[in-house]
Amino acid sequence: MTPTDIQKRIAALRAEVSRHDELYYRDARNEISDFEYDRLKRELKELENAHPIEAAALGGESPSQRIGDDRAEGFQRVRHVAPMTTLENTYDEAEVREFDSRLHRLLNRTDLAYTVEPKIDGASISLTYVNGRFTRAVTRGDGEEGDDVTSNVVRIASLPKILENGSADAPVPELVEIRGEAFLRFEEFNRINQLQEEAGADRYANPRNLASGTLKLLDPVLAAQRKLEIVVYGLGACEPSVVKSQSAWHQALKAWGMPGLDTVSRVVGIDAVWNAIRELDSRRASLPYATDGAVVKLDEFSLQREVGYRGEGERARKLSPRWACAYKFAPEQAETRLREITIQVGRTGVLTPVAELEPVVLAGTTVSRATLHNRDEIVRKDIRVGDHVLVEKAGEIIPAVIGVNLARRTPECVPYVFPSMCPACGTPAVQAEGEVAWRCPNESCPVQVRRRLQHFASKACVDIDGLGEAMVDTLVEKGWVNRIPDIYRLRRDDLLSLGKSVAKSTDKLLAAIEKSKTSELWRFIHGLGIPYVGAASAKDLAAHFGSLETLVESRYADFLSEGKQTVIPGIGETMALAILDFFNKPGNRALVSDLISAGVQPASPAAREPAGIELAGKTFVLTGTLPTLTREEATALIEAAGGKVTGSVSKKTSYVLAGEEAGSKLEKAKSLGIPILSEAEIRTLLGR
Predict the structure, then answer these.
(1) Which of 119, 216, 297, 318 is catalytic?
(2) Would 414 be classed as within a structural domain?
């Protein structure tokens, strides 16, 4: 590969990994298995390490050097006392043994003791207890700061609100962060999916994604209806320190009444570690919840502190502990016959090959379709119609064809010829430089039109209730909607002609369309379908540009400086070029213009409501339960007036907004002489 080829590959991998991070952490969904994701990320790391000059020339922070970020709108941000890091993954026994050898070299010891724990496939959570009382639940976020989801977690029946008295060996500390996973048992996951089917809605993909999405529900009542559970195993901050090892920590959790792991082994030596991993692998099929691996940790905390973390001294954030690793179990596989290859057309025109299979049972479900990713993967694996193929299903996501049983290939199995034209509209397919995907360039392709409209109207974008897949199909077939702006020109009389007794649903749909005209700016940006731009990036763009018109007129210098340094955090060169290319097309510029002409007035993040005093630069901390406002509503009011809400009280805090059952934050604020406000006083302050 030439330096240019290397740089293009690094850029493509960064964009692809970032896209999957966005899907996994922000949208709680997967398109590929953990194994495929880890393979992409490992290739990226290896290329960046082998070619640092080419990697540095791209500028920006690589996704290989950061932790995924699950923070979402509508939640108070809280800073972890001790950062929540992530583990290095491996699928190879040799790498587990190398992990042990590396620790031997670092510590100059051979008698190392480890704990081996099952790796629950759930959503990471941090629980804070102050003087034995549960006070807060926070998601991992970006590792330093997460979302406050206490209102949803507090309803979990198995979570103790008060820690039971510990033993003399493990007294209850004054403050402790207990780390674990929120998860759903298979039985509950299946029950919820049954309700989805009865309501005519899509099934949820897997328990992990549903657990993550449930944590982020803004409706605590709905969250409580889904029977989330929690299992704990990790230690964050602890004041004062009460245990000296991971195995002792598990004993302390048990003594305090916390829901801990069913199986934890303390072993000495790498052979015993590997035996414990194999034992967990053999038992996972009988467990009532999803596990996807085993976590190996140095047992003694003093040795953990001695070896430290990757990232220390290089970046502000710790990335992963050197004293722990995660061994991921091999994904479940089955062999079956490939009957046909069909092509799906996505909203951006990408042609995705899909394997139509003879049904086979895999991971407890019947599988008849699997992804083939792209043309290059079919060629690389030499997959042919009629072949007996290996199908893999990891984490209960869409299965993938990973290989062929060549011993069973017959002469009738000939190489597959990828279509040169779009199967939906017949337009010749094209492949952009540096991309593996083939696309249909016809923006009027009927399948693309429907996919774009569905994306724009989805909850992840402007959220038009009633404009689902079936309605979009109907509107496109009737010729009433072909472009996004057409949604805002729908006529009531036309909709009423769709059938009897549709007046109520028609009025509801039109009201939802009208309401969407003033959705947040980032929702419109996300809804446009700009390549590589997900919800998080859309929020960054909205905050920076402030309006659709300004974004449309953006230039290269708005994204990157002369030294290719990013101007907008999180927006690197690959994404910047995609944005500029998108708005260089007259059709896309006209689309935005037509949206504005149709009455769309996005709510700008720069807008500020009038306040009784200037709140710019003022920092607020919320504590306790307010009479009428939720924390999210109070936070929105303060931020709309220019203030900032943080999670902890310090000398820099301007005000503390306190309600009933205010805890230690109120006492600390009083000791520091920080003004305390009631809900009535904050309303007066805001001129309300």
Answers:
(1) 119
(2) no
